[in-house]
Amino acid sequence: MKFASIDIGSNAVRLLFCNVYEDKEKAVFKKAELIRIPLRLGEDAFLRKRITKQKADRLVTTMKAFKHLINVHDVVAYRACATAALRTATNSEEIIKRIRKEAGVPVTVIDGKTEASIIYANHAEENLAHDASYMYVDIGGGSTEVTLISNGKYIASKSFNIGTILLLYNKVEKKYWLEFRQWVKDISANRQSITAIGSGGNINKLYKMSDKKGNKPLPYKKLKLITAKIESYTTKDRIKILGLNPDRADVIVPAAKILLAIMKSARISKIIVPEIGLSDGIVRGLYAEHKRKLAGRKPSNK
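Structure (tokenized):
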């Protein structure tokens, strides 16, 4: 069976198609296709507090295209969620109404706590050591979500209004940085050997640039060296020489700095990047709902 999810983020809008294969033990989730459109809604939302007509039109057009693809793929179910950009924009309600009317796609604006819980629903730590501690880190254009898991148990989670686009335009006050780092430091206190689990386009790109393969951990020191190397290039040279996409070249350093700040505050020496994110978590939620509905239709044994 196939499910689809739409993630309307601050930097890009993503459509994920995912196949789910069931066996006796568990469901296996296999990404079929991922389409990414770099709309950069966060520039409007964070700088102007509203989405301009030009970008709203592009978003509606994108959603129309996505809906056609969803129909062609004949999915079991799909869901569209919007994060920080539409949480912030004062005209998000009218844009959501336009999307529903013109594209036929209902959009739910989720808060930071819900965003973190959906990302955690991927449960990447299940395939790792159960007697260890893991810190999920998802870095977006307008927010960063952090969740701590220890010995298989949920410990704490929080969303911070610290994102790559906000940093790019100096929209993060120093006090928020201090609060952010202190919270990370406090929840990780007295916990030995925490491993970070990273998600988000920039973290995935940093991992690929490290030449790590097969889910091998990326050490903090190596990440720091990669960040310094990227930062030494101008934005144009990051595109020309390093081969970064234009919408990635300017925000990848802010993302790396957020990640390094978290790892340093929590004394984390390595990060693994299983290429999961909000879109994947939405799919898992859709599958769980589908299974509950099927269970509800089964005739009683009484």
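The mean pLDDT is 92. Residues 53-73 form the longest helix (21 residues).
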